[in-house]
Amino acid sequence: MSIRKALTNLLHTFKDKASVIAASLSIKRHVSTVRVHVLRATTHRLASSPSESQIADVLSAGRGSYLLPRNCIEAIMDRLHRTQSATVALKCLFTLHNIVSEGPLTLKDNLSHYPSHGGHNALNLATFRDDTDVESLELSSWVRWYANVLEHVLTVSRVLGYYLTSDGVGREFSGVSSVELLCKIRSLVDFVEQVSNAPESLHLQRIDLMYRIVRLVCDDYGRVQREISLHVEESERRVGDLGVDELRELVQFLKRLEECRERLIVLFVNRKKNTLFWDLIGKVKRKGVEEMEDMEGMWLTVVIDGRNDLTHSTRFTNPFLEPGEILYSGPTGWRVATCQLTVQTLG
Questions:
Q1: Helix, coil or strand: residue 309
Q2: Within a domain: residue 139?
Q3: Which of 82, 104, 112, 307 could form a disulfide linkage to 62, CB 3.0–4.6 angstroms apart?
Q4: Is residue 217 part of a domain?
Q5: CA dihedral sign of residues 92, 96, 101, 106
């Protein structure tokens, strides 16, 4: 370790201790206790990831008065947005992720509605950059990725109407419209895409903190896989009732999902490989394409004004065509032409 790195670590150690002392001197004892727990879980030492007891201390704020959960989330967010250290930012995000995964509902709800009503990019780390050294620069890309992943976790929960970690929640689709179903699938696919866009510096997983972060994300990905399976199976049952535009949207979502597969295998080192899941995605995608092609083929039908002595080529018609018109694909798009029919009179 270089002298500069050693001095930086020593300075950070003193800084962390000073922050804890300052927080503990607050006259608001309950608030100061929460802030001390947050500071101890989010130190500058990269080699020391938050312990289980430190995370448990932070989560305990959700079991206090109604003000403590809000104070806890505000303390973590203040720490996250004020720091220029990639290590501190990652530990803050890791702590927030544990709140989403294991925290009481009071903490989850306060996080979901931060700062006042939640929303996209609530963590606001798209431009985060720690250029202290090469490793800090690499960690900065993981900070930006991790923040986006957490934002998508919260977005998915809002779209689904329940937290991903919720157990025993009935996934009933009887009252869900096809538009709502596709909206939920889109949100789930967006999450998978964001996860698959992990930085290329995968060697950083040798660091305990990074390993634990990727493991938590892997757990969320497993839950999202199950949700996607349920929603895609439901869409398969509705394929015959979906319009062409809806089928096209569904197929596009499933194609986007398949494009993430190889990157996910590399990120999770074959964990959550789940061949049956990908078989389902491929099967429903093919079924959607076939149904879409059949429906589009029905539109290329001559509409004939009904006469008892004429034979209709098919029972399917396009309501936007006049009798005797045909829809065909030209060099500049779809065109309508008049079809001249000669009918031979019998007898």
A1: coil
A2: no
A3: 104
A4: no
A5: positive
